[in-house]
Each structure stands twice: as C-alpha cells, then as structure tokens.
Amino acid sequence: MKSHQKQSNIEIPIDGEGIAHEPPLPRQYGTELLVLKEGKGVYLWDVQGNKYLDFGSGIAVNAMGYGVEEIARIAADQIRKIVHTSNLYTTEPTLTLASKLIASGPFQAVHFGNSGTEANETALKYARLYAKRKRGDGHHTLLTFSHAFHGRTLGALSVTPTEAYREPFEPLVPGVEVCPYNDVEALKRIVDSRFAGIIVEVVQGEGGLEVMTKEFARALNEVRDAFDLILIADEVQTGMGRTGYLYASESVGLKPDIITLAKPLAGGLPLSATLIPEKINALLQVGDHGTTFGGGPVTTAVASYLWDTVNNPDFLMGVREKGEFLGEALEALRKECPSGAIRLSRVRGMGLLRGLEVEAEEGDLSEWMKRILQAARKEGVLVLRSGKNVIRIAPPLVISHGEIEEGIERLKGALKSVSL
Ligand code: PLP
C-alpha cells in the first residue's frame, strides 16, 4: 500500500542567538522564536548556550523556577503509580489537593481543568446555571471590565473586551456587558437583576497591570449581595502568592463566590481550579459539566507540593518584601532613564507582578515595545509585555534580592540601548 506519510528530514534553521526562523508553529506566535533548552533556579539557557535571567516565569507560571528536584520526583513517582483515571473515578492526590483548596475560603468543591481559560469557562457556566436554577430565565447577563483578559476559548473570550483578541472570531457569546474598571458609579448604574455574574481581576495581568481599588472591591461585594450574583475573581495570574497574598482578593477586601486559579498551580504542569461555594455545588446535577484530563493524579500531586510551599506566612511575607524591593528598584530605574524618544511614565502592579509603563514621544509605540523586549533578551533578561505599553515583570517567586538587582541592571542596559 502506498504510504501517504511525508518522508522528510525537517531542518529548522536556528541562528547564533538561539532563534528559530519560520518554525512549524502557527504564526500567531510570530515567525521568530527563542529556542530554550534548560533552566536552573531563575536562569534559562537557549540551544546555543546563551544564558538568561527569567523575569517572566513563562507567563507568570514557574513560581518555583526551573529544575526543581522535588517536582521532578513527585511527578515521576506518580506517573509510575497511576498516570490517569478520568473523572469517572478519583485518586488520593486529587482529593488531597481539593481538600487543601477548599479550606482556603468559603468553598465546598473544586472543579479541576487544564488551563486558565477553562477555569473561567467553568466559572461562567456555573454563574449562569446558578442564576437559572435559582431565579429562573432572564438573569443570564455577565459583567466584565475594560482591559480585562480571561482567556481565548469562545466563552472566556466573550468576557475579554479587547478588540484585537476578539475581532476575527465575532460574533461571540451574547449576553455580556462591559463596565469601566475601578469605576464605582458606572458599576452601580449598570448592574441589575438581569445579571448572573461578574468576572474580575484584582490586578489586570494582560491589560496593563492596573490594580483594583478597595472602594471598587467593596462596591463589587455590595452589588453581588444586592442581586444574588456570582462574583468570580479570576486569580489565574494573581493567585498562589504572586502578589504576596495567597489570593490577591485578600489585599483589597474582595469577597468572591468563585476563585479561578491556573498558571502557577502545578509548578509548570497544566492544571486549573475553579473553587465553588456550597450554594452552587448544591444546584449541580450529574453530567452538568466535565473534563477528561482536568485534575489528574500527576498534576494534583505536584500542586499539593506547590500549595504547601506557597501557603505559608513566611513564604508570602518574603514575596511581599521582594515585591516592595522590585517596585522600588523599578521606580529608581524609571527616574534614572532619561526621557528621549521614549519615557517611563509609571510603575504599576503589586508583589512580584510589576510593570513599567512606556510612553513614546515619537514613533510607533508597539514598535518601541518590540524593540525593548528584544533588547532585554540580548542583555540576558527575559521580560513580558502587558497591554499596549507596559513592560511586565513576573519572576519566579523564589528569586533572590541579588537576582532582582541583576535583572534590573540588565533591563537598564536594554532601555539605554533602545532609547539612545
Ligand atoms: N485569566 C487571566 C487573568 C490570565 O492572565 C490568563 C492568561 O494569561 C488567562 C485567564 C488564560 O489562561 P490560559 O492561557 O491558561 O488559558
């Protein structure tokens, strides 16, 4: 029989800077990608041996850094015992992690998934289910906020108002309204009994690192109580210690019904969690929702280790303290970098999720941002972008003061080389 398999010996060109050109990956990620090979602590090496300090943790994922022996051991032991069961059964690691998570607040159960967007899909579905089974039809509207980011699947994308993410895929899920972030008056004007739920971030991770005010948190709690809404805190990026609190909600007094978690939850393995209260769990019936892989024994075994490490007052205090140090270093850097074609206008964020806002006196801002990120890589530090014009810094939570100083020095070199 004739084989239809393509016989090819694919050679992907990688240049001396470790960049693969035109890789066989979708163009949504660009046509030039740095090929990383290994990591230890907060450092990474590419395939050509170039070394980088990681100021991004993937995208706020690798809380413990790279090459963590304990994570490797736990995952390998669990794979040898049982790698997967489906959700028709469960396992001890899954039950152990779920018990730990529900003890972190007024929760009764955890739906596990594999990514942030799935955790939010689940939360949105539960909000609608709760409204329908408790209050009947006509209360399905969902509220989101300007510059929010909740994921790429169609439901989560429907509550992500930034046009660039949505436009090719419209029309999206109907029944979504958008309110300006941190605008108490607008919130009170918009919300009424048509709504099922509100989804909100305490720090807008992808949308420019704006932080929720305490007044806004209070207003969100109040409108939830007034209309029996489901208040969802999307802590996919901010949860698990990133801001120096177990959940960023605690820092502003937000009292969510549901918390969603993902990025750092399983030390770099794909796992998400949607934490739900008794009032929602009581309304769920067999078959309402599900997943094949979510919450398997390997990811949950590793996540228990992460949880025990992070959910510790000394660890969280350490993150808060290093976050202050990073914030002060960025403020000093902002003042030190002279205004030329670009200007560093503001330091944003909290804890170890910080940003430097860039303004361009001339030229295209997005070109400047590309040049800054590239210059940083050439200086040996990997940083991220948030929104249109914020350099985002989200290092592994285990970073030391000395490593923060080193990263800031490298970033300074990059900013100077770009704005000269
Ligand atoms: N929610 C927030 C706040 C995020 O920052 C992200 C990803 O950046 C998501 C949801 C989507 O997560 P994922 O990419 O794992 O689907």
Write the layout of secondary structure elements.
Elements: E1 19-21, E2 32-34, E3 36-40, E4 43-46, E5 51-54, H1 57-60, H2 69-81, H3 92-102, E6 109-113, H4 116-135, E7 141-145, H5 154-158, H6 163-166, E8 176-179, H7 184-190, E9 195-200, H8 214-227, E10 230-234, H9 248-252, E11 258-261, E12 272-276, H10 278-281, H11 297-310, H12 313-336, E13 342-350, E14 353-360, H13 365-378, E15 381-382, E16 384-386, E17 390-393, H14 401-419
Parallel strand pairs: 5-15, 7-8, 7-9, 9-10, 10-11
Antiparallel strand pairs: 1-2, 3-4, 4-5, 6-12, 11-12, 13-14, 14-17, 16-17
Helix pairs in contact: 2-11, 3-11, 12-14, 13-14
Bound molecules: pyridoxal-5'-phosphate.
Pyridoxal-5'-phosphate binds next to helix 4.
Describe the structure.
- By secondary structure, this protein is an alpha/beta fold.
- It has two domains: 19-67 and 314-419, Aspartate Aminotransferase, domain 1 (Alpha-Beta Complex); 82-311, 3-Layer(aba) Sandwich (Aspartate Aminotransferase, domain 2), CATH 3.40.640.
- It contains 14 helices and 17 strands.
- The chain has a seven-stranded mixed β-sheet, with helices on both faces. It has a four-stranded mixed β-sheet with strand order 3-4-5-15.
- The N and C termini lie far apart (64 Å).
- The relative contact order is 0.15.
- The model has no long low-confidence stretch (mean pLDDT 96).
- Pyridoxal-5'-phosphate binds next to helix 4.
- Pyridoxal-5'-phosphate binds at residues 59, 115-117, 120, 149-151, 201, 205-206, 234, 236-237, 262.
